[in-house]
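Structure ticket #2291
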Amino acid sequence: MRLFILPLLILFSNLDVAAQHSYCKWNDFYKRTDYFDKNGKLEGWSKYNDFYKRTDYFDKDGKLVRYEQNNDFYKRTDTKDSKGKLESTKSYNDFYKREEIKDANGKIVSYQKWNDFYKRYDVFDKNNHLVGFYKYNDFYKRWEYHEK
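Resolution: structure written out below.
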């Protein structure tokens, strides 16, 4: 009997290691992407701004927090705070086949890479340690972020 219970305890203890941290889902009514915490509480949303040709990010109260805009000259996406100050950049590295996120000074903060085996985007910190992953949930039709 103990031989049967021990593997079950190990299995169930390992399931909690990559617990869902947050998720986002397209809101067809408002034509925006809504972001939720693990309990389903709205944290904020993003919406494309046709006038400025950028994606605006809002908190749960509707206040502009940051925005992303394509920078065609440097072939990257710039993320700026609500006042227009550069926070980070996002660009694809063809050599390593990954999307790198750099701070305002140009130092790599993190990167994400497609994992063909698990069909997900693995997220790594600057020291190449796996910190989480994004995976599409077909049942709920949403992207979920799982923290390690």
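Closing remark: The helical segments are 2-15.
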